[in-house]
Amino acid sequence: MRQAAESSSPFDKLRQDFHAWAKATGRPADFRLLLRLVLLEPGFQLALSIRLQEAAIRVPLAGRLLRRLLWYGATISTSCHIAPDSSIAGGLYLPHPTGIVIGAGTVVGAHATLFQQVTLGRRDPDRPEVPMLGDYCRISAGAKILGGVTLGDRVTVGANAVVLSDIPAGHTAVGIPARILPATDERATGIDI
Fold it and tell me: Model-level pTM?
C-alpha cells in the first residue's frame, strides 16, 4: 500500500482522482467536468491541493515553504487537517470535505472514499502508530480509525464507527467500538464499492 501511494507522481494521482470523480458522478471524464470540479467542487479542490502540495515539495529551495503555504490555505478553506507527510494514493474521492483529519504518517490506499468528519490518526499521542487503509476503502461520515490499525482492501466503515483493531479485506465495520460484520458475496468477489 505505502509503495503504491508513494510511487506515482502527483499528476498521475490527480488524473486518478479525476477519473474517480467522473465515475462517482456518472459524467464523462472530459474538460467540462474538469472545469466544473476545479471551480465548483470543494472535495476535488482539496484533492487538487493535496496533489499540488506533493508536487511543490519537489521545487528546489522554496518547495517546503510553498507546500506549507498550500497546506495552510487548504486547511483554512476546507476545515480539514491533512498532514503533509501522510501518504495518499490516487483515486481519492471526498464528496463532502468538511472536518476530515488525516494524521502524520497515515497511509491511504488507492480509490479511497472519505466522507465528512472522518478522522484517521493516532490513538495515543505518545505512540507513533497510525492507520493504514487498503485500496477501495469507504469510510462513512464521522468514522474514526485510530492507532496502528490496518484495513484490508474494499473495507467499509459505517457512520460514526470507532475502529480500534484491524479489519480484514472485504468486510464492513460498524459501531462503537467497531465490530466486524460478515463479508458479503459481492465484496468477496471484488465488485467495486
Answer: 0.86
